[in-house]
């Protein structure tokens, strides 16, 4: 098998995968009678046409990236975290509690403190499925989903009860939200007239940290070993359950941090709908980014674009914003399938034989020239 | 006493969607496929089930037959989604957990997108109404508990012995269990492992679609984005809890009914208790149940979650 054929084959399959993904999306778009080409065009280009659009994409990139980094740590360690949604909610609650409790602290103390609280909250929520998986063999897929629902209820409970805005209570519109948190918690919005905040740099710093953690420390090595082959890792003397729990806690902590940053940078109070599906989109970002920080940064930008673009399709082409969830689902299915197809040497050999049978002469002359 | 019976007879229909979906999931898992996409298939079923009577009657009463056409459409599309999932996890051998999440997002997203286009806001349908069984419904206590329900409730509970019969007494059931327990052995005696798994996925998807349509046509009589509310995932957990056996799964589904009934009872009695904690209850119960029933893995299909590759030596 020539190297050239191998690269060509890989590229061909990836192009085929992209085409299939877009076609599957097109089927749904066609079913609702939308202009398929225009919809894709709006989603992919409309947000990038002005300053506001670009910064809004970057704004959505921050939580996506943070969560995806956490999910990567878990995935690499052999545990799939689909509970980021709930971990994020708990992180927000912890951050809000700190901000409500210590409104007088100066920014440079309060912000790290509040973000840390968010991380601890998320980590605690991530500990539960990690522990259940490591010690009691409970499928993390199910426990994290259940914890999402539980966290969502806890979240509304706190926003309706202990953390409810006193103004809401007297004015009585009854919107479940906390009061406007102290200005000392605000992350600076560094471009005038837009909402983009310094959380972007925190998220980028976290990407570097994750790279070093996973590839440059023995902790990361052990976690990746546990994920690559549990039995081999155990044989190598790695305490697999311990690293599973740690990975899940890191994963939860990152989701919690994402929540803290959203509160401090965008909403500035705890309200309903902050998580808005970021936990699930984070999974797609992590997979799309090849489970590596260097891939996750651009992947998060791409999905920020997709999510913000989908918000616009409703107005411009009459396609509901739910379409982005459809596309994400398709992308997951196509990515996992493509990975397996590429990893199948038998299939590649068969394609190669067929290829040479059809175009044998052309290929061989090229080979001679090269 | 009357109060308890009222609560229970209200509670039993709540278990139906779970019961149907987890019977379907049982076939999937018995054949070795962990189908986490159940939630998405249910969402599609719920939307399609309602779409047919809604688009024909625009909210007005329509002849009952259209409700059943809706059910049929939900079943057919559910089976197709099952096959589509099978293409990914059986034919391409993709990891089932993550593919299931993709399937869930695809199903829930598609249902939501189509719903906004074809129906729009909160619209209700008359749906399928209760059909008391003549004679039996008048028996005190047992009547309201068991014989005064929606036709689909009876169907769901009849599905339990049917599923048992199919799984344990028919050649196809034996093949399903064989490919889920030892696919290589099954392969060596000429069973086409992937074909049987695809068939099981189609059955599971069809039942998931039916379960979803039950929710929109019989229980809520409307569709919303949150209509499934994690029931697909609870159904997957119920299969573990029920140790892959239809009767035990039914027991599990009824246990969840109790949790629901308790919730209704507390709300009905007007006890001042934050309702968020009551809504949490079933989800909390799933985690506890999974933690407690871990030993049952020994009896589970041993090839669960493992793709079968004929060309690979083991």
Structural summary, described in words:
The complex is a heterodimer of chains A (370) and B (314). Chain A has 370 residues and is an all-alpha fold. Chain A has helices at residues 3-31, 36-45, 51-76, 84-101, 107-136, 140-160, 166-171, 199-216, 218-228, 230-235, 240-267, 278-288, 293-317, 323-342, 345-369. Chain A folds into two domains: 1-32 and 323-370, no CATH class; 56-319, ABC transporter involved in vitamin B12 uptake, BtuC, CATH 1.10.3470. In chain A, helix 3 crosses helix 9 (218-228), helix 4 (84-101) packs parallel to helix 6 (140-160) and helix 5 packs antiparallel against helix 6 (140-160). Chain A is globular. In chain A, 49% of the residues are buried. Chain B has 314 residues and is mainly α. Chain B has one domain: ABC transporter involved in vitamin B12 uptake, BtuC (Orthogonal Bundle). Chain B is 70% helix and 1% strand. Chain B contains twelve helices and two strands, in the order H-H-H-H-E-H-E-H-H-H-H-H-H-H. The model of chain B has no long low-confidence stretch (mean pLDDT 87).
């Amino acid at each position: 098998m020539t190297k050239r054929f191998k690269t060509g084959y890989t590229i061909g399959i990836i192009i085929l995968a992209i085409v299939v993904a877009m076609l599957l999306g097109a089927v749904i778009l066609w079913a609702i009678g939308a202009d398929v080409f225009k919809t894709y065009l709006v989603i992919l280009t409309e947000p990038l046409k002005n300053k506001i659009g670009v910064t809004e994409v970057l704004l959505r990139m921050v939580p996506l990236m943070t969560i995806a980094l956490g999910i990567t740590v878990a995935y690499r360690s052999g545990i799939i975290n689909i509970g980021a949604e709930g971990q994020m909610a708990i992180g927000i609650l912890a951050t809000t509690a700190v901000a409500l409790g210590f409104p007088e602290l100066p920014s440079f103390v309060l912000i790290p403190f509040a973000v840390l609280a968010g991380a601890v909250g998320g980590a605690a929520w991530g500990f539960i499925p990690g522990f259940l998986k490591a010690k009691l063999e409970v499928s993390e897929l199910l426990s994290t989903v259940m914890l999402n629902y539980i966290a969502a209820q806890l979240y509304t409970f706190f926003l309706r009860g202990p953390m409810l805005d006193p103004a809401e209570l007297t004015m009585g519109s009854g919107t479940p939200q906390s009061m406007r948190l102290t200005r000392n918690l605000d992350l600076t919005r560094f471009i005038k007239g837009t909402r983009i905040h310094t959380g972007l740099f925190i998220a980028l710093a976290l990407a570097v940290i994750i790279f070093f953690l996973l590839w440059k420390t023995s902790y990361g090595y052990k976690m990746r070993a546990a994920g690559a082959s549990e039995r081999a890792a155990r044989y190598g003397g790695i305490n697999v359950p311990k690293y599973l729990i740690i990975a899940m806690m890191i994963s939860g902590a990152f989701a919690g941090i994402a929540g803290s940053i959203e509160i401090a940078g965008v909403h500035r109070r705890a309200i309903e709908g902050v998580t808005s599906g970021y936990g699930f989109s984070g999974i797609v970002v992590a997979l799309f980014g090849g489970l590596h920080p260097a891939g996750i940064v651009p992947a998060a930008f791409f999905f920020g674009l997709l999510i913000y673009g989908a918000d616009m399709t409703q107005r411009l082409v009459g396609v509901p914003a739910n379409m982005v969830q459809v596309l994400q689902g398709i992308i997951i299915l196509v990515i996992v399938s493509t990975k397996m197809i590429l990893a199948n040497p038998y299939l590649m050999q068969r394609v190669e034989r067929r290829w040479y049978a059809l175009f044998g002469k052309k290929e061989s002359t090229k080979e001679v020239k090269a | 006493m009357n109060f308890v019976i009222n609560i229970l007879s209200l509670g039993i229909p709540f278990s139906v969607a779970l019961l149907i979906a987890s019977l379907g999931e049982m076939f999937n898992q018995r054949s070795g496929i962990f189908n986490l996409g159940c939630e998405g298939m249910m969402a599609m079923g719920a939307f399609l089930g309602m779409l047919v009577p809604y688009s024909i009657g625009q909210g007005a009463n329509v002849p009952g037959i259209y409700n059943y056409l809706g059910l049929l459409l939900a079943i057919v599309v559910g089976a197709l989604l099952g096959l589509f999932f099978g293409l990914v996890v059986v034919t391409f051998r993709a990891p089932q957990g993550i593919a299931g999440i993709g399937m869930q997002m695809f199903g829930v997203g598609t249902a939501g997108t189509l719903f906004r286009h074809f129906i729009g806001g909160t619209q209700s349908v008359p749906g399928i109404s209760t059909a008391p069984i003549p004679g039996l419904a008048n028996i005190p206590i047992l009547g309201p508990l068991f014989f005064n329900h929606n036709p689909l409730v009876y169907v769901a509970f009849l599905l339990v012995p049917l599923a048992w019969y199919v799984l344990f007494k028919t050649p196809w059931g034996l093949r399903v269990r064989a490919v889920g327990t030892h696919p290589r052995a099954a392969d060596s005696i000429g069973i086409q492992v992937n074909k049987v798994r695809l068939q099981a996925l189609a059955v599971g998807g069809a039942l998931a679609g039916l379960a979803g349509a039950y929710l929109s046509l019989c229980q809520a009589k409307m569709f919303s984005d949150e209509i499934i509310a994690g029931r697909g995932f609870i159904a997957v957990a119920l299969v573990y809890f029920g140790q892959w056996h239809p009767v035990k799964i039914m027991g599990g589904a009824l246990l969840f009914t109790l949790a629901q009934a308790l919730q209704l009872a507390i709300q009905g009695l007007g006890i001042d208790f934050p309702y968020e904690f009551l809504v949490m209850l079933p989800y909390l119960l799933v985690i506890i149940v999974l933690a407690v029933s871990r030993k049952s893995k020994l009896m589970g299909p041993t090839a669960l979650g493992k793709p079968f590759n004929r060309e690979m030596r083991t």
